[in-house]
Design brief:
The structure is a single chain. The chain is mostly helical. Helix content is 56%, strand content 0%. Helix 3 packs across helix 5 and helix 4 packs antiparallel against helix 5. The protein is globular.
Length: 90
């Protein structure tokens, strides 16, 4: 298990939870920056799960909580978006 300092070394998630009136769009942007800055040896799914566990006492309707949960769901059900396989073949 990673420490919070290792999981959120830029403190992006922490700050998102502290910003009053933060929007879902802003949380998505912060999440993307956070995810791209994770060390390659960390499993993204595990990192998101541990972050959610750390912030479990935050209101469940906080936009960042929703974005993190959505990140877990989309990792469980990845879908292809684009490329030659998605184009119709005649």
């Amino acid at each position: 298990m990673q420490t919070l300092a290792e999981l959120d070394h830029k403190r992006l998630i922490r700050e998102a939870y502290r910003i009053d009136g933060i929007t879902v769009s802003q949380c998505r942007s912060i999440f993307l920056d956070w995810a791209l800055s994770l060390p390659t040896q960390l499993d993204n799914r595990t990192a998101i799960t541990q972050i959610l566990e750390h912030y479990r006492d935050e209101p469940s309707d906080h936009p960042m909580t929703g974005v993190l949960q959505q990140g877990l769901e989309e990792m469980a059900n990845p879908r292809r978006r684009g490329g030659w396989r998605s184009r119709s073949r005649d």
